[in-house]
Design brief:
The protein has a single domain, classed as Jelly Rolls (Sandwich). Helices cover 3% and strands 42% of the residues. It is built from one helix and twelve strands, in the order ββββββββββββα. The chain has a five-stranded antiparallel sheet, with no helix packed on it. The radius of gyration is 15 Å and the shape is globular.
Length: 151
């Protein structure tokens, strides 16, 4: 498998629920930065990859997203819808191209194993509609950033 799937056990009561997201001791590498995003339904972010090996832990905090991962060497793919209806986190080795599609309006977090360095960014792109992954998205006309549209 090209990713690690982390089950998130929810402990629910009348107040709502609690879930442990990650223990650094159980991850292949510890995370050093946490990022949040909000995406409207129909947005695709990615596909991105990191030559220097920044790994990500993906979790959808509210709503639903489709995570798509491509092993650039073997062409193997992984996809899973995560969020409200499937509370799991996905650990993605950064050498693999990865991204997500907002299936609903969604709040998304990703914990990363390297701090972002604006002077020497380690983020590269593969088009969202690359032949190896285009069939994995639910949309054929996503909302894209200028950077992702030009990948």
């Amino acid at each position: 498998m090209i990713v690690d799937r982390i089950e998130l056990t929810r402990h629910e009561d009348e107040r709502g629920w609690f879930s442990e997201l990650a223990r650094a001791s159980t991850l292949p590498k510890p995370f050093v930065q946490a990022n949040l995003s909000f995406s409207r339904k129909g947005v695709i972010r990615g596909l991105h990859f990191h030559e220097r090996g920044q790994d990500d832990v993906f979790v959808c905090l509210s709503g639903m997203v489709r995570v798509v991962v491509l092993d650039r060497t073997t062409g193997e793919t992984f996809t899973e819808d995560i969020g409200d209806d499937n509370p799991v986190a996905i650990y993605v080795p950064g050498i693999h191209a990865h991204g997500y599609e907002a299936l609903t309006d969604a709040h998304f977090a990703y914990l990363v194993t390297s701090e972002y360095d604006a002077a020497h960014p380690d983020e590269h792109g593969i088009p969202w509609d690359d032949d190896r992954v285009r069939h994995l998205w639910s949309t054929s006309s996503p909302i894209l950033s200028a950077r992702d549209a030009s990948s």
